[in-house]
Specification:
CATH topology: Nitrilase/N-carbamoyl-D-aminoacid amidohydrolase
Number of strands: 15
Strand order of the largest sheet: 13-12-9-8-7-6-15
Radius of gyration: 17 Å
Number of helices: 8
Strand content: 25-35%
Low-confidence stretches: none
Number of domains: 1
Shape: globular
Helix content: 25-40%
Structural class: alpha/beta
Distance between the termini: 18 Å
CATH architecture: 4-Layer Sandwich
Largest sheet: 7 strands, mixed
Length: 283
């Protein structure tokens, strides 16, 4: 990013969605995702973010047992109802699902991004796979990803990525004004991570932070819900309870500018550097 002082000129409305998943049923979960897109659009949202592995649920053994049937591709016809919802409403979506690397066949935990016209935009693969995920056969991704939407730059993360400060920092140093994370945070320790880590990522980087989390049983976990948006000073802007919901927030350039004027460390890239290469895509 040439100038980290560059800020968006207009507000941007985003949403985080949470709902129960049907285990290993991609069409059913696509239908749920399409409904959430329409709900987010009705609240004025330009982009909806959904939880980690939303298209299958967090069902690692089931995915690895039938990867050909359960991984999704950018041209997957099962995504057509979701693409149609995006095109009809003008609202994009960031949706979690399992994928396979085109060349190596390695399993990845990914998000697929569909634009406001329903077309595939880009894919981000989780860079920090947990030990359990690696043991199950999932490999980490090698690139970060930043989206451009209406003058805002949005860094993508998936669950455990958020536990590594350098991941959100790399997004910020790539010019991100917000950090968007789809997660599987369970009750107990996951709920603590949500309230401790997410505000820290916002405060560390004077960036908005959005979390989309599971709110029901998914694999071995029971999601704690609490999808939310935090301001660039780490204060909570809005949050959901532990139930199906869409939470919508408007990101304000003036709030972002004030936070960065108060804490200008971000605009000195000599203080830190991205740890991995990144790609960018326009919505």
């Amino acid at each position: 990013m040439d100038d980290l002082r560059e800020l968006p000129s207009l507000p941007l409305t985003l949403s985080a969605g949470q709902a129960p998943c049907v285990p290993l049923d991609v069409p059913a979960n696509v239908a749920t995702a399409a409904g959430l897109v329409r709900r987010a659009a009705s609240e004025g949202s330009r982009l909806l973010v959904l939880p980690e592995l939303f298209l299958t649920g967090y069902e690692l053994p089931g995915i690895t047992a039938a990867p050909d049937a359960l991984t999704v591709r950018q041209d997957d016809p099962r995504l057509d109802p979701l693409a149609a919802a995006c095109a009809e409403t003008g609202t994009g979506v960031v949706v979690g699902g399992p994928t396979r690397h085109q060349e190596t066949g390695q399993l990845r935990i990914s998000v697929l991004v569909l634009g406001r016209d329903g077309r595939f935009v880009t894919q981000y693969d989780k860079q920090h796979s947990t030990p359990n995920e690696r043991a199950a056969g999932f490999s980490p991704g090698t690139h970060g990803c930043t989206l451009d939407l209406d003058g805002w730059r949005l860094g993508l993360g998936i669950c455990w990525d958020m536990g590594f400060p350098e991941h959100a920092r790399a997004a910020a140093l790539d010019g991100a004004h917000a950090y968007l994370v789809g997660a599987m945070l369970g009750r107990g320790s996951g709920a603590h991570q949500r309230t401790a880590v997410m505000p820290a990522r916002a405060l560390d980087n004077t960036s908005y932070v959005l979390l989309a989390n599971h709110c029901a049983v998914s694999g071995p976990y029971h999601g704690c819900g609490g999808s939310a948006v935090w301001n660039p000073d780490g204060t909570l802007l809005t949050e959901a309870a532990d139930a199906p919901a869409v939470v919508t927030a408007t990101l304000d350039p003036a709030v972002l500018a004030a936070a960065r004027e108060e804490d200008p460390v971000l605009i000195d890239p000599s203080l830190s550097a991205p740890v991995l290469p990144r790609t960018s895509a326009a919505l």
